[in-house]
């Protein structure tokens, strides 16, 4: 891969510099993305330890994950526009700096609210950082095979970060404490900050425009309200005011967001982007896929520890097949896209993921790693890796250079909003199945037993496989047949 000279639409406030080596740009961008995605999953293995240490209930424990995911998702569009307006390097450094500082605060938290607040601040930093990583690649590598390979590596590193989170979290929780799943970001983040400051060249493509802060607040508030409403259905049911008010309020806020974007002079999300078929189709698929794919990390971590009684480090090691398979799929995808269309490859990967998730739904209280986890892990992770690279390539194709940051933010927004809302849905249906199974078996005592827990987690995987199947159907209908 070789970098190309930034386009003439890029303006830099700094003096011109020699184009940095392609490997250095790729390394810095992928390192930033790795940290962002790692923190989506790294806390999963540590959740039982966090609950014991800070005294969190099940709903509060879910918000340790969702505070990061929702803030990340809600502000990604704003983060992408920040990169366009104020510079990709500057956005990268500011986002990583905030992310690192929030990691330190979370690792030192003494109260549940402090941890949740720190996770939200991490999400805000990640929302500025992540679009900058993809924008740096799409504006550095020329369109075609070079860019596809760079995006494939970026996808593999991001997917590997999500998969490696289980192993990293397990090692740190078992040998140190749960706090180190956050504190480890501090030295790593500082090292990446130094590398980015040296290697990256400043550039921006949309000078003279302003930020649409109201749009960012509206979309974040709308998604958060929807997620909160779904969580409330677990306790109050779908028809209760405690559920309906936030659900309807969230939909109303998202409606206002669309109306504002249609009228403002400098919208956070120019609605004209959705006239590009690859952009709207790939993002719609990512939104739906995200709703099912979070189950792999969240519920597998709980199943391994709460049902199979794995230690945190054993649970982390059990995620190695997921890590290796998803990285393999992501690295194979660019090669396969030279032979098959991106649509065909994405659908093939999606079908494999559906099979893997459905297979994993057969988990039970008497399961083993070799008999219950290993096979489904390889199939669903390989399928996910094959699927995400062509989707990311399609989602960033066809947009103007001045919209590169925004489109990169939209890619991650679709995936994260889908994941955050999907996690709340899957957590709710799992809890309902756990409660029904426990009641039916006459259980009681200190909490649900392994049989009920396995039934609930398995049901979540069943629903997740259905969600991804719907995404495959959407691919067949909406994605164009063009080869990459």
UniProtKB/TrEMBL annotation:
Pfam families xref list: MFS_1 (PF07690)
Coiled-coil stretches: none
InterPro entries assigned: EmrB-like (IPR004638), MFS (IPR011701), MFS_dom (IPR020846), MFS_trans_sf (IPR036259), Sugar_transporter_CS (IPR005829)
Localization annotation: Cell membrane
Transmembrane segments: 21-40, 60-79, 91-109, 121-139, 151-172, 178-201, 213-231, 237-260, 280-300, 340-359, 457-479
Protein name: MFS transporter
Organism of this sequence: Streptomyces milbemycinicus
NCBIfam families assigned: efflux_EmrB (TIGR00711)
Sequence ranges assigned to domain Major facilitator superfamily (MFS) profile in this UniProt record: 25-483
Keywords of this entry: Antibiotic resistance, Cell membrane, Membrane, Transmembrane, Transmembrane helix, Transport
Principal localisation: membrane
Membrane topology: Multi-pass membrane protein
């Amino acid at each position: 891969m070789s970098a190309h000279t930034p386009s003439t639409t890029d303006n830099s406030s700094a003096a011109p510099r020699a184009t940095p080596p392609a490997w250095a740009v790729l390394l810095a961008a992928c390192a930033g993305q790795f940290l962002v995605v790692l923190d989506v999953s790294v806390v999963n293995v540590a959740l039982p330890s966090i609950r014991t240490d800070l005294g969190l209930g099940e709903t509060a424990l879910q918000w340790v994950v969702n505070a990061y995911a929702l803030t990340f998702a809600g502000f990604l569009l704003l983060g992408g526009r920040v990169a366009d307006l104020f510079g990709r390097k500057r956005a990268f450094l500011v986002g990583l700096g905030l992310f690192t500082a929030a990691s330190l605060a979370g690792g030192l938290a003494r109260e549940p609210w402090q941890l949740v607040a720190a996770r939200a601040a991490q999400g805000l930093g990640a929302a500025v950082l992540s679009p900058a990583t993809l924008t740096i690649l799409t504006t550095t590598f020329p369109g075609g095979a070079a860019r596809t390979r760079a995006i494939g590596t970026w996808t593999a590193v991001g997917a590997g970060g999500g998969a490696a989170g289980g192993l990293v979290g397990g090692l740190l929780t078992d040998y140190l404490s749960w706090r180190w799943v956050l504190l480890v970001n501090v030295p790593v983040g500082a090292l990446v900050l130094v590398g980015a400051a040296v290697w990256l060249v400043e550039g921006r493509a949309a000078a003279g425009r302003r930020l649409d802060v109201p749009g960012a607040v509206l979309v974040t508030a709308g998604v958060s309200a929807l997620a909160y409403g779904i969580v409330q259905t677990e306790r109050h049911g779908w028809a209760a005011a405690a559920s309906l008010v936030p659900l309807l309020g969230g939909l109303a806020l998202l409606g206002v967001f669309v109306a504002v974007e249609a009228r403002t002079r400098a919208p956070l999300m120019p609605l004209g982007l959705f006239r590009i078929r690859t952009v709207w189709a790939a993002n719609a698929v990512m939104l739906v896929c995200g709703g099912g794919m979070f189950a792999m990390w969240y519920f597998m971590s709980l199943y391994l520890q709460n049902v199979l009684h794995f230690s945190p480090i054993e649970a982390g090691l059990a995620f190695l097949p997921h890590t290796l398979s998803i990285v393999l799929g992501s690295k194979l995808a660019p090669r396969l896209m030279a032979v098959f269309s991106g649509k065909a490859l994405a659908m093939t990967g999606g079908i494999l993921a559906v099979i893997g998730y459905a297979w994993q739904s057969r988990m039970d209280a008497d399961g083993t790693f070799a008999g219950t986890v290993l096979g489904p892990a390889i199939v669903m992770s390989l399928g996910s890796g094959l699927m995400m690279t062509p989707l990311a390539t399609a989602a960033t194709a066809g947009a103007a250079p001045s919209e590169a940051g925004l489109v990169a933010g939209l890619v991650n927004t679709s995936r994260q909003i889908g994941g955050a809302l999907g996690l709340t849905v899957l957590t709710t249906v799992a809890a309902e199945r756990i409660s029904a199974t426990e009641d039916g078996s006459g259980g009681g005592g200190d909490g649900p037993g392994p049989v009920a827990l396995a039934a609930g987690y398995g049901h979540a995987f069943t629903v997740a496989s259905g969600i991804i199947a719907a995404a495959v159907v959407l691919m067949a209908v909406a994605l164009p047949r063009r080869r990459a």
